[in-house]
Amino acid sequence: MPSTRVAKGPRSRELPDLSRETQLWEGGADVVAGLDEVGRGAWAGPLVVGVAALAAGDCDEGSLGEVRDSKQLSPARRRQLFDTVALACTGWAVGLASAAECDELGMSAAQRLAAGRALESLAIRPGAVLLDGRWDFVSPPAGSPAPHGAIAGPVRTVVGGDARCVSLAAASILAKVWRDRHMVRQAGQYPAYDFDRNKGYPCPRHRAALAAWGPSAIHRRSWAFMEHLPSSATAGEPPVSQPRLVEHR
User: Residue 44's beta-bridge partner residues?
Assistant: First the structure.
């Protein structure tokens, strides 16, 4: 079993390892998928769930040795690691819930929806799942029938998992870089909001743009303060088409 790696120096911290993935592999799951979300607190753009699938025989810890929780990495370093992580995974994908779906369903249901889409688009079927945090957003709610294609194996939550588990750290990088690139593309259609800089998250310039122009077609209007904003200059334009599933390998 891989040993825990510890960074040196006065600000040492535990680094991601494969101990939890190994427990699940040894328990009979050939493939373990880590899922992590980004964009939950954004004012605009989709909620994105990334999934990184690792197989016991294919996983190369050397190739994934540089992965960290995406929040611990600079944007430049995340971008540098994206292709390395994608190639090292047995399979990976992202699933989206659009801003309109976040408004209509609420954030918890939207996160379940995005997670389901990510798993559906994954080319390989995982036998077990690791989730960052305390909440199981993959298993059907208590009392609800299991949907077609539901995960049959164990689903485990890990508090701080994106900083502790390699699969979750990998998923956090894939989801964060994919969403950032998506929001940079949206900046071309909605230049007033600086999406290329803020990626749809709160900041003073973003708030000032909303006060001046109102929400765009890709803003989440369920935020309470949106009710008091002026009508959007782009309100008459059709919403930007956003893919619900993005297939990878």
Answer: 219
Instruction: Name the pTM for this structure.
Output: 0.84
Q: Give the CA diameter of the chain.
A: 58
Two structure tokens written together for 68 = 């960290």
Cα gap 70→183, rounded to integer Å: 17
Q: Angle formed by the axes of helices 166-187 and 75-88, to 10°?
A: 120
Residue 92 forms beta bridges with which residues? Answer: 52
51 burial level (CB within 10 Å; 0-12, 13-18, 19+): buried
Strand 47-55 versus strand 91-97 pairing type: antiparallel
Strands 155-158 vs 128-132: parallel, antiparallel or unpaired: parallel
Structure token digits, residue 209: 């743009």
Distance CA 17, CA 96 (A): 27
Tell me the per-residue pLDDT of 41-80, one tens digit each, with 9 for 90 and over: 999 999 999 999 999 877 655 668 788 878 888 899 999 9
Chain segment 191-238, per-residue pLDDT in tens: 999 999 999 999 999 999 999 999 999 999 988 667 667 655 444 343
